[in-house]
Design goal:
heterodimer, A: mainly alpha, Butyryl-CoA Dehydrogenase, subunit A, domain 3, 78% helix, globular, B: mainly alpha, 1% strand
Chain lengths: 165, 141
């Protein structure tokens, strides 16, 4: 699989995953570029890889985590990226603008680890097994993070609904 | 209750999908990635050549240093051997002279002793020969 084929298969998915994880389109582009540079530099034996999708997501995730480590302390990260909601809203397509904004805000408020599992499950349609492999978790932990994430989302959405009424 | 809420939330999320990525993203990502690989490849080649050059230079310096050290050692050892040979010869001659003094150091022959030392002084200045002993002994006789 050459670089172009790789991008055609996973490029956009990876971009969305990165925007939802990092809350920044610019950072997502930088990390995606770095990841593709790595794929270009090190020839990957795709035939040896059982689940290429999980592999590619794991590589991107590792790159994103390296990036986040460089951005420590967290305050600095928040200063650099003060409004992740807008970035998240830019990749979500909903029935209307209001609901897009509502979901983006709720997702932005979720803890990073729960948001990651929820977005992989909901938007990428991955199984808990795949998510567990990508995030270095047990399947049960992945499932429980998903449940906690949904519960929190439900609370945020309810609160917003109440305020709206 | 929680399960129900989660189900509701899942249904709500099911109504969303993801937008297409910006249209020029593919070109941007791939071009930058390939450009970076090219730059790094050039850099790696340059560094590799530099490393090989330094290695060769280091080997040459070590070889030259070893040759110079060996030549110096050879010169130094030959110089030391020569000096050692001269010292040995002088010591041998001195012991010979001591023997002569010992044999002829009776109190009655103090004059001969003085003469002997005079001779000795003279002989020290000239090249010493093994025939000394005979000539000296004749003098004492």
């Amino acid at each position: 699989m050459n670089l172009e084929e790789l991008y055609d298969r996973y490029g956009e998915k990876l971009y969305h995953y990165l925007v939802l994880k990092l809350g920044s389109c610019q950072d997502a582009e930088d990390i995606l570029q770095e990841t593709f540079y790595r794929f270009a530099r090190y020839s990957v034996r795709w035939k040896m890889i059982k689940n290429p999708k999980a592999f590619v997501f794991k590589v991107v995730r590792n790159e994103a985590n390296r990036f986040l480590k460089r951005q420590i302390p967290l305050q600095k990260r928040e200063l650099m990226n003060p409004n992740p909601k807008n970035a998240i809203a830019s990749v979500i397509l909903g029935p209307d603008e209001e609901s897009e904004s509502l979901l983006a805000e709720s997702l932005a408020r979720l803890p990073d680890d729960q948001r990651e599992v929820v977005t992989l499950k909901v938007f990428e349609g991955m199984t808990f097994k795949e998510i567990a492999r990508i995030c270095n978790l047990s399947i049960n932990t992945a499932a429980s993070r998903y449940r906690y994430g949904l519960s929190k989302l439900h609370l945020y959405l309810e609160k917003k609904d109440d305020r709206g009424k | 209750m929680t399960e129900e809420n989660n189900k509701k939330t899942e249904d709500f999320l099911g109504g969303f999908s993801l937008r297409n990525a910006p249209p020029d993203l593919k070109e941007k990502i791939l071009d930058r990635a390939l450009q970076k690989r090219k730059t790094n490849h050039e850099m790696t080649t340059f560094l590799r050549k530099g490393f090989v050059g330094c290695l060769i230079l280091l080997i040459i310096v070590i070889a030259v240093d070893a040759t110079i050290t060996r030549a110096q050692n050879r010169r130094f050892s030959s110089f030391l051997d020569e000096q050692q040979a001269t010292t040995d010869k002088a010591e041998e001659e001195w012991s010979m002279l001591e023997d002569i003094i010992w044999e002829h150091s009776d109190s009655a022959k103090s004059e001969a002793k003085i003469k002997f030392y005079d001779l000795l002084k003279k002989k020290k200045k000239t090249r010493r020969q093994p025939e000394w002993r005979e000539s000296l002994e004749k003098e004492f006789e």
